[in-house]
Design brief:
By secondary structure, the chain is an all-beta fold. It has a single domain, classed as Beta Complex (Metal Binding Protein, Guanine Nucleotide Exchange Factor, Chain A), CATH 2.170.150. It has a 4-stranded antiparallel sheet with strand order 5-6-7-8, with no helix packed on it. Strands 2-1-9 form a 3-stranded antiparallel sheet, with no helix packed on it. A two-stranded antiparallel sheet has the order 3-4. The termini are close together.
Length: 92
């Protein structure tokens, strides 16, 4: 699987985990040069507190378009630090 935005591959892995229709990419599979930590956090009742990344490709910014669970609840511990995408980022 690949996560693509603005014709740039943000992440690539054959070891994604599909949860609720979202592909979670292993942390080592993301191209970190496009990722900046965000101050945004949300809560999922069974996964825990999500942290977000903002994606920047050249001068284009996609605010809070990737998320991950640094300390997931027990039921989601298999996706600790795995990264999922939205806001126009294509998964192929």
């Amino acid at each position: 699987m690949k996560a693509i935005w603005k014709d740039v591959i943000l992440a690539e892995s054959d070891l994604t985990v599909n949860i609720e229709g979202n592909h979670y990419f292993p942390p080592q599979s993301i191209n970190r040069k496009f990722f900046t930590d965000s101050q945004t956090h949300t809560r999922c009742g069974w996964k825990g507190i999500a942290s977000y990344y903002t994606i920047k490709v050249n001068d284009d910014i996609n605010q809070d378009s990737a998320w991950y669970y640094p300390e997931p609840l027990n039921k989601a511990r298999n996706i600790k630090n795995y990264v999922a995408f939205w806001k126009g980022i294509k998964i192929e």
